[in-house]
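fyi for ur records
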Amino acid sequence: MKVLGMISGTSHDGIDTAIVDFEFEDGALAGTVLHSGSTPYSSGLRSRLVAALPPSQTTLAEVCELDTLIGQAFAEAASAAVSGGGVDLIVSHGQTVFHWVEGGHARGTLQIGQPAWIAERTGTPVVSDVRIRDITVGGHGAPLVSFIDTLLLAGQTGTPAALNLGGISNMTVIPPGAEPYAYDIGPANALIDTVVSTTGAHPLGFDEDGRIAASGIVDETLLEILLEDSYYRLRAPKSTGKEHFHGDYVSDAVFRSGSSPSTADLVATLTELTVRSVAREVRSAAVDLLVVSGGGCRNPVMFEGLRRALPETRVVRSDQFGAPADDKEAIAFALIGWCTAHGVAGTIPAGTGAREARILGTITPGRGPLVMPTPITQPLHSLVLTVAT
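which gave:
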């Protein structure tokens, strides 16, 4: 079964796509990555999206318009991705605009990007709204990548973990003889991107190749204030997002520090915040293999900073496990879609804090009748990914 996975993450810079051809036999799932790519949002759409995100106020009219415009952007990206050949199913994560966490529990989550535009443009069924079902059974709806992480790392010795460095950093830990667990650690690129965008330090809105951070000096006083955030002391499972870690959050921390860092020094400090907050969690879990994905692992200041901070841990990119680091989230949602189509739960309860695993998502039919594959009753125990050449 060929599935197209699509997501725009908390960096909200564009749409990542991956087509995976899945084959299942005796509990083992094999996936061949046939396509991967990224389609940036137009500058106008990205500006409107950023302006509507917390802590800014917005209107229902703007949410409605963005829902349509982002849905159309996803439809365009899907059409381009499948132009070389059709797929059986599309999974659209959409764009998270709010993740409601209260009292340490997720209460709701909102992803926009109307899937009907994708179904109409491609004629293919679309699975969307994949997070909320987990929340209804007490989970955080995140990190959903914990499902693919446990399958990819199955059979590894010691204590392996998978780390995603997107807008927010999240980690899945697989301790020997115990249930895997996962949680959002804190900001990875979210605060860096905010500073770069608002200051105009780079036209692309992010610290390309870590050059800005490399030119700055870490402000240790400011860093200590940032590391004192109470979120870091919460126990897993937990989730967070730009509702907490946003531009005003940085401005307030700078004010409290009494310092006036340059843009380069501020970016260097925020990059080191990711390194230290992640390294602290990795050491606490006694992880000996850390498999890293997400845009942050392409930032040498961040990635090599982790390697220096974790001399006892083998730190590698997820490419070594068949999942290209830039595409793993899109692949993860393709996997969730395959599971939904086959009646298989697409979550690890210990990874999100849910009481039970659930089949995820809502299905929008394509042009023809909705025909589902024969349900699979065997549990999945592994996933082997390869990239087509």
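The chain has a mean pLDDT of 95. thats all i got for now
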